[in-house]
Amino acid sequence: MAKQGHINSNSGLTVVSVSSSGSQSAQARETLDKLWVEVNKKQQRNDRYQAKLEAFMAYFKQSVEPIEQEVCRANEQWIRHLVSFVSRKSIKGRQHEALLDWIQEELTILESNPFNPVNTNDLRDAFNEAIVTSIKQNPNSSEVPEEQLDHYRIELSLMLGEEIELSDEELVELIHDPHKAMAYFESVLKHKMESGYVGDDEDIHGQESPYFHDESDQHDHSYQQHNQDFHNTNVDVATALFSDKQINRLYRQLAKKLHPDRELDPDKKAEKMGLMQQLSHARDVKDPLAIFLLAQQYLPEYQLELNDNLTVQLETILKDKVKQLNADYHELRRGDGLSVIIWQRFGGGTKAAREKGLREYRQALEQDVENLMAKCREIKTVKGLQKHLTARLQSFNFTRVPMSELPFDDFPFDLFD
Asked: DSSP character for 403?
């Protein structure tokens, strides 16, 4: 029959004491002690790194977001300026196709900016209307140029969130008959609602935003898959440990201790509401370690008795937690969240280096605004636009550089002191 032990919780760390004698019991105590210390250290490490990311993100937004939004608004004016030329009859053939491509490109840049305050749906509506107007102005409107049909098909796909399965003839009918177009839109949307359609996590173009590109994506995916596989193999252990009567008893004691109705002070009541949410979440996802962590802080007098089986299960859960915390840290350092990207681009080096990098970036954005407004002033006639369209047709290298490709990769990525 397995002998009993217990876990004592105090304000520092959980001390494991196994009542049975022998080297095996001592080894079990030492293993659980070390794992518990490691969990606490890694959690504190993650919390510090997360706080650093959040602090720098707040500073970045205060320093850069206003000018980022100015760029977006200038880009909106530039797009509307280009759209005003779409229906001009003298722009046709390959030049008309180059113009439509140009507008699509500018819309992509605008939509990929995480600080964008502009409603791009309105811009796309204006773009669509201009394309339709251009088609209807065709002397033989039943013969729509292929490049115009292609762009209209792309725009409809973006609006509806899926590929449209229409022939060119059917698409032309929609262009010339607004009632048919509306009926088609309604039928597609109704089908998506009835089938419980949920969009994917890609951006509106089904492409990665340039702001979130990372050359290590493939490595990150493999790392995440490895940790997910490990977690899946241990989920049964966590469920079994959580179903133990002692864990249920511990849950009830914590619920009694942390219940907000027992508090009269508004601040303490709000704090306990948050703690109760943590406790309820731990129960819902069958996370016994989260229960232990709460007990460590709020029930320091509680003693959890362990038999050999529970000791093994707890060791497995602690090892799982260590791996999960390492995966979380990996995500904080190499993930695709905006605060991570901002830190990687601008957060490294000394304070003076960071200030210099942000100052240069603001200057680049201010220049971008000036360039966009200058182009709006410069290109007033079809003839003037045609010069730019010809240049674009002669070169494939005409994409403005988004934030993620600006030359700030020389910063060392060491941490704040």
From this structure: G
